[in-house]
Amino acid sequence: MNLLGKVSIALWCALLLLVGGVWLGGHPETLPRPIRETLVDDDRALRAEVEDLVKDNFYKPVKESDIDDSSLKGIVDGLDDRFSNYLTPKEAKQFDESVRGSFEGVGMGVGEDRRGLLVLDVFDRSPAKRAGIRKGDFITAVNGKSIAGVSSEVATARIKGPAGSAVRLQVMDPDTRKRRMVRLRRARVTTPIVTGKIRESGGRRLGVVELSTFLNSGAHGLLRQKIDKLLRQGAEGLVLDLRGNGGGLLEEAVLVSSIFIEDGLITFTKGRTKPRQEFEAKGEAIADDIPVVVLVDRGSASASEITAGALRDRKRATVVGQRTFGKGVFQDVKRLSNGGVLGITAGEYFLPSGENIGQKGIVPGVKAKDNPKTARDEALPVALRTLAEKVTRR
Q: Residue 275: helix, strand or coil by DSSP?
């Protein structure tokens, strides 16, 4: 064989080795077990080497727990999925407090946005209210660190802290894009999960019930109690206000939808390693001749979208408002041995029609938008008029 032939063979072998190495790097499970375990051991040794070098040579003292937390966050960040996240033990504790409805923070309802957190509500007599933060503002940094692209769970956990402690927020005006820094002192804030009232529109008595979160495992029960009370007070129809509700537990979405839908499919899920799982209505629904409108906005996400989509697809309600956030995926949440929490995107959920609303959101049948710069609520009257028309036609 001549020299050219030998060189060609060598090049082809090198190319095959390169391609094979790249493929095996992405599919280590195909390697023989001894080789796979050796590579894993090498990886652990390399990580330990880097950690030791940092601890021995960095110009400031470093806590081992901080290195561990950063390493775990780095693994999840490598997934390039903004809905998957790792919460440190401290962040997990703060998140648990917010789920219970009573927490130490600054008194804002927020939604996820590429730029940080979108302020959906500012509670009366709260630190945020006193600092001049308004609905529609964006929080872009916390204590000097950008939260752009950070999940809402992690971003809000950074804002929360012990009552009396201080936090610095960078606030961006949505119109001028100007940013300002505000310093707030945290306080204990209590937020109601469900509120309700009777409103008059078109000569009709209508019930308006607002659900602020699906994170509480008893949310559906509180909502049903409030709805039953409004119906006893003579409500002829109901507005379910899910504006600014960023979602929560899938089971709660099914149970809330079941208040309005007697039986049949609410949603189904499936993922790469998870087979299709169907979730059907359960329990006793209110009378199906009671007209319903669901009011949504850009802050309505996840479980809110499951509920609004199910009521729309099952012809149980008219959706009014703005296009929703568009979160068509769900997370598995695992408690870790260190007290932290891993939330990892495990699959997609689908509406009864088979539609996945990831990125698209739910487009309301009737458009309505509230102006955050006014004291009025411009969207609710549209929902009430739509409901009054449904009541009249029944």
A: coil
* Residue 66, CA distances (Å) to 79, 88, 92, 131, 169 in order: 21, 9, 15, 32, 23
Residue 188: Cβ within 10 Å count: 13
Query: What gap in Å lies between CA 208 and CA 241, rounded to an integer?
Result: 7
- The 10s digit of each residue's pLDDT in 195-227 is 999 999 999 999 999 999 998 889 999 999 999
Lowest mean per-residue pLDDT among 110-114, 202-206, 376-380: 110-114
Please give the domain boundaries of the chain with CATH numbers for all domains. Answer: 103-190 (2.30.42.10), 194-393 (3.90.226.10)
Residue 275 has pLDDT above 50, yes or no: yes
Q: Which residues of 250-262 are buried (b: 16+ CB within 10 A; e: fewer)?
A: bebbbbbbbbbbe
Is residue 322 within 8 Å of residue 118, measured between CB atoms? no
In b/e form, how buried is each residue of 198-232, taking b as 16+ CB within 10 angstroms?
ebebeebbbbbbbbbbbbbeebbebbbebbeebbe
Q: How large is the angle between the packed helices 250-258 and 303-313, nearest 10 degrees?
A: 30
Q: To which H or E segment does residue 146 belong?
A: strand 145-146
More confident residue, 378 or 100: 378
| Packing angle of the helix pair 250-258, 219-232 (nearest 10 deg) | 20
Tally of CB atoms within 10 A around 149: 13
Q: Model's pTM, two decimal places?
A: 0.77
Interatomic CA distance for residues 371 and 376, integer angstroms: 8
Is the pLDDT at 280 greater than 80? The verdict is yes
